[in-house]
Specification:
This protein is mainly α. The protein has four helices and no strands. The chain has one domain. Keywords: Membrane, Transmembrane, Transmembrane helix.
Amino acid sequence: MKSTISIIIYLGIGYISLGLLKLMDVIKIEFKFIFSFSLAGFWFILYDLFLFILETNTSRNRYISFGLRGGRQLSLFLAIFTIVVVPFSPMKWNNNLLKQVNDSLVFIGLGLVIILIGMKTHRELKQSKETI
């Protein structure tokens, strides 16, 4: 378990380093990789959203829990698939539709992250009030 956590943390550090190198114009990153990273980021956010809903799900309906667990696993698979496979797919990368999808994913992902932060903060405040 510790090695899995280390891999995840180092992978995150690697992507932060990649972003900083791009910011300093040390490296060039082709659009197909930017697109795949944006799409993967979106899937990772959905994974976290499914996990949060599972953790706070008060319904004991097994179909809902099954669907949430399935959605979580699917979004994790799609995130990894998007990073590994999508940049190498034979498609025309320089088109307006992909650029529009990429830009939209950034805003949708940011919105979901902000909502998740709010929901997690709300849960923590509620839990701290219950312990008082």
